[in-house]
Amino acid sequence: MKRFTPGSAFTPSGKRHSGWRPPTSSPMITVPGAIKIILGVMILVQVALTVLPSAQANWIVNTFGLALFWRGEFLTERLYTLLSYAFLHGGWLHLLFNGLWIATLGSQVYRFLELDRFLILFAVCSVAGGLAQALGHWGELTLTVGASSAVFGLIGAAGHIWVAAPHMDGLTRLKKLFGFAMIMMVLNLGYAYLGAPGDGGGTISWEAHAGGFFAGLLLFPLLLPRPRRSV
Predict the structure, then answer these.
(1) Phi and psi for 204 in degrees, rounded to 5?
(2) At the top level of CATH, which class does the domain 2-10+29-228 belong to?
């Protein structure tokens, strides 16, 4: 998740269940069609940002990047950017880094949720991350791009699969999830302040990562189909 300070060219545009079973085994990584489409859109957008003249590329970023304030005023007409910003990236390395997480981790989470619920998770985590970013920089003119909120949401969801297994008792699960969340937040802050692949000159938005992570952590058990629900 990259946060930039826009230049002068920016203008506002507009209980565990006894029937819970994991999905049947399959190859280690089989990328579902929906995830391929999501990644395909991200790639097409990045191609456009690469080949278009700078004026048109800047228009795309300014129009669809997350920016909810202009001169201190909250712009309700730009609420759509709480989702659209996830499809833009600060460069090819930034896209590659997020894309690998979405293809690998996202494919595993998808096996538990399937199409509709996965898309809900992806969208809600993106929006939650965007809201966390806005709250952390209330009234400031910032421009944020990247799918890292959704990636961290997938990591939060994965905690219910690999960290706190469904067969564990409720208290043990809560302890493991709490520890998992604390570790992830420490890593999140380190990621933000020490840097990571794909920095591209922007500031890493740890607030957006945290918002996406906790959205995924809380939402995943609610989205599980009833026979699989583990909480």
Answers:
(1) -75, 130
(2) mainly alpha
Helix axes 33-51, 54-64, angle to 10 degrees: 140
Rounded Cα distance between 185 and 210, Å, is 7
Tokens representing 195? 């840097």
Tokens of 163: 């960290």
In order, the DSSP letters of 132-178 are: HHHHHTTT---EEE-SHHHHHHHHHHHIIIIIS-TTS-HHHHHHHHH
CA–centroid distance for 171 within its chain:
28
Straight-line distance from the first to the last Cα atom of the chain, in angstroms, rounded to the nearest whole number: 30
**Are 57 and 133 a contacting pair, CB within 8 Å?**
no
Please write the tens of the pLDDT for every residue from 139-184.
998 999 999 999 999 999 999 998 987 777 788 889 999 999 999 9
Evaluate the CA torsion angle 26, 230, 99, 42 in order and state its sign.
positive
Residues with Cβ within 8 Å of 145's Cβ and at least 6 positions away in sequence, in order, are 1, 2, 4, 61, 65, 66, 85, 88, 89, 90
CA-to-CA distance for 197 and 98, rounded, in angstroms? 10
